[in-house]
Structure formats: structure tokens, C-alpha cells
Design a protein that fits this description.
Length: 180
């Protein structure tokens, strides 16, 4: 009887913990660093990991740099070897909090929240604050979307002089994730 009660309590505690956290391993980040009159510089990563601790309003994003894919494989090779040095700096992370977050404020109508925290890219950590929209889906998942810009200089990403006029230093980032 004690074993059955112990197993039951363990299962119940896992359900409660699961309700406090939502996550995904297939969020999407697109980035674009194009300049007019030159070839588009854009990539997509569909393997973004994200974890939201509802109780603490904490959110984490982790991406593997090598999982960004470009239309042209040569761009991808240069991105990994020359710009992001993905063997030396294999991932980028964001750890932060959603300001004024409450599950009571989340419903099917998207609501805007600021997310602030530490972004680590290319071995450099920088404090950022971005606007995001959050909404609840019919399956009780939380959809999160954000559009923001990052400056390559802030993360010591060197753009060689020969291509500096063809690649923007301001990178437009679009994030989408469905946390379940």
C-alpha cells in the first residue's frame, strides 16, 4: 500500500511540475543581414530549444549555430567558419525574464510583454530587452513571437573588409516558438 501511495504521489508531483514549465525543441529563428542591391543574406534555424518557467517568469533559448541554414551552401560555410566560428562558439543562448508576466494575462489574443536578459553569442554576453507577443493556443500551449535587431559589433563578429558593404552590421532577427 505504501509503495502504491508513493508512486501515486510521484506521478502527481510530475504533473504539477510539468504545468509549471513549457518547452519546445523546434522553435524557429530567422535572421536577415541584407543590404540593398546585393544578394540576400538570410538564414533559418528550426531547432531552437526554449524553456519557460511559468512560476518564475524565466525563459531560456538555446541554439546551435551550425543549425542555421542558408539558401546557398557557400554562405553557410562562410557563416560557420569565418563569421560565427561555430567550432569555437557552437551555441548561442538567451536567459531572461518576461516582465510583468502572469498566465492570467495570456489568452488567445496576443499580448505584448518585454523580455529582458543576457544574450550570449560568439562568446560575448550582452544585456538586451526586446518586445514579444505571447498568446495561448487551443491546446494550452504558449505561442511566442519577437522581432528585434542585433548589432554584430556588440558580439565581436568581424565582417571582413572585402564584403563589409554587402552585409549589414544590423541583423534583423525573427523568433517564433510554440511552448507546450
Amino acid at each position: 500500500m505504501k509503495k502504491i501511495l508513493l508512486i501515486f504521489l510521484f506521478l502527481i508531483s510530475n504533473i504539477v511540475v510539468a504545468q509549471e514549465k513549457k518547452m519546445t525543441a523546434n522553435g524557429i529563428i530567422n535572421f536577415e543581414a541584407s543590404v540593398p542591391f546585393y544578394e540576400a543574406v538570410e538564414a533559418k534555424n528550426t531547432q531552437v530549444f526554449s524553456l519557460l518557467n511559468i512560476k518564475k517568469s524565466q525563459i531560456i533559448f538555446t541554439i546551435q549555430i551550425k543549425d542555421f541554414h542558408f539558401e546557398r551552401s557557400l554562405m553557410e560555410d562562410h557563416f560557420n567558419a569565418n563569421y560565427m566560428e561555430s567550432k569555437k562558439y557552437p551555441k548561442a543562448t538567451f536567459k531572461g525574464v518576461i516582465e510583468k508576466f502572469s498566465m492570467k494575462k495570456i489568452n488567445s489574443v496576443p499580448s505584448e510583454f518585454y523580455i529582458k536578459g543576457k544574450m550570449n553569442i560568439h562568446g560575448v554576453t550582452k544585456n538586451i530587452r526586446v518586445l514579444a507577443t505571447l498568446s495561448k493556443t487551443t491546446t494550452d500551449a504558449i505561442a511566442i513571437q519577437s522581432d528585434f535587431s542585433l548589432d554584430t559589433d556588440d558580439f565581436k563578429i568581424d565582417i571582413p573588409y572585402i564584403v563589409r558593404s554587402k552585409i549589414s552590421k544590423n541583423v534583423n532577427v525573427k523568433l517564433e516558438a510554440l511552448l507546450q
